[in-house]
Amino acid sequence: MGRAEQPQPPRLPGREGGSAAWHRDRLGAAVRAARACGDVWQLRAGVYVAAAAGPCETVLRRTTYEYTTAPGTFRPVRRAGGRPPGPQERAYGHAARMRTLRPKAVAARIGVIAPGAAEFAAGWPQDRDVEVLPRAQRVLARIGCRYLFSGDADAMLAAGAGLAAAREGMIRSWPLPGWAPTPARRSLARQQAVFAAGLRRVIERRRAAGRPGDDLLGRMLRPSAPYGLLPTAVVIDSLTALTVATVETPTRAVGWILLALARHPEAADRLAAEARLLPDDPAAVTSAHLAALRHTQALVREVLRLYPPNWLLERTATRRTELAGHPVAPGTTVLVCPYTAHRDAREHPAPDEFRPERWLDPAGSLVTPGVFLPFGTGPRSCEGTALALAELTLITAETARRLHLHEPPGPAAGHRVDTLGALTPTGLRLRATPRRGGPASHA
Fold it and tell me: The whole model's pTM is what?
């Protein structure tokens, strides 16, 4: 007898399972469907949602083998002859980037990151409501540019900020076919050209001087035994998306983290006490100081568990396979949902409760690989994970030791939960007062 045909994933019945309900309240629909339908459910024909840690990890780890990602937002950077970087050159570019993005490399450059984190907290305007995300974005852009371009950070900052703003507009524009010349796409193309021209000038100046530098760009400009000297177009192509990535996800994460500090003052007090071990001079902060911030790291992880900015990741099946016992045909879209996977009681007891201590328990949430997916996992996971976690930990520690944060008074919510593109506390405003015994601040 032949093998019985496996069933397609279930879906919510009636209007609850339709696209209109999904677009009206994505988070609510995702949670309802995960509870009612199980680990994998069907949004509509040809679109599945992986809602639990196991299926999520399976899809992410099989990316490039059984699944592929959507095309990137940015156009390939072409060299003088018009040819874009090929797959092998892009792989070489990735390898060169990772030499400065791996955890050990990030740990060695904590002193580059820490001053920006201290600046974020020390310069917070006090006794008035402050919109958090624009402020976080500006500071994170400076930290990212310093890490990538060091002495050339100021030269690249405006171009990088323009590129990030254009991509944000692109994400939020009405989805139209890729060939449609929308205003958002034209703006993105212009900003990408400005960024590429600015970075090309920096590269040419460094190469002419024979001083590639000790930052991430400098590492990419040095020849390597496996692939020699990377062409300028490959370097620019490699750093375009990375420059934006150093800002996008961390900005949203900072918003959720600071909201948690405001809502959980006892946790904030614990972090403030822990952060007293940091040196007064942020440039003197080392990886040992970072490693000692255990409660801070636990809070950051707990916030990323509850509010992963990358709450929904898209993959497309490239071959026939199966997922949690359901058939997956080539061309099927699978939406990987860390948001519901992180709120699964099988993996995280009391999943809807804010419990940073779960990350300090040797038998707690850290035990099982694959149940913590704010940066994805597998071949296409976020390559800047170590950098982002270092930034978030230091910003959290510096803020907690200097400031008490409060939500604005009144019954109305101080922000809107936005799920378009990423999970974002849009419009979040907080008020700060100095913490007694903390370092002096300047508004």
Answer: 0.93
Return averaged pLDDT per consecutive 10 residues of the chain, 443 residues in all: 68 75 91 95 95 97 94 81 81 91 96 96 91 96 96 95 89 65 87 96 96 95 87 94 95 98 98 96 97 98 98 97 96 98 94 96 70 93 96 98 92 83 95 84 50
How would you class 210 by CB atoms within 10 Å of its CB: exposed for 0-12, middle for 13-18, buried for 19 or more? exposed
Candidates 247, 255, 242, 279; CA nearest to 111 is 279
> Which of left, alpha, beta for 53 (phi over 0: left; psi -120 to 50: alpha)?
alpha
Q: In degrees rounded to 5, what are phi and psi of residue 411?
A: -75, -25
How far is the C-alpha of 356 from the C-alpha of 353, rounded, in Å? 9
The DSSP annotation for 29-89 comes to HHHHHHHHH-SEEEEETTEEEE-SHHHHHHHHHTBTTTEEPPPPSSPPPP-TTSPPP-HHH
Domains and CATH numbers, the chain: 14-434 (1.10.630.10)
Query: Measured between alpha carbons, how far is 199 from 392 in angstroms, rounded to an integer?
Result: 27
Q: 335 near 69, Cβ under 8 Å?
A: no
| Nearest CA among 70, 35, 272 for reference residue 178 | 70
The binding site for heme consists of 382
Contacts (Cβ under 8 Å, ≥6 apart) of 209: none
Three-class SS of residue 180? coil
Which residues define the annotated binding site?
382
Tokens of residue 102, six digits: 């791996």
What residues contact 111, with CB distance under 8 A and at least 6 apart?
Answer: 282, 283, 284, 285, 286
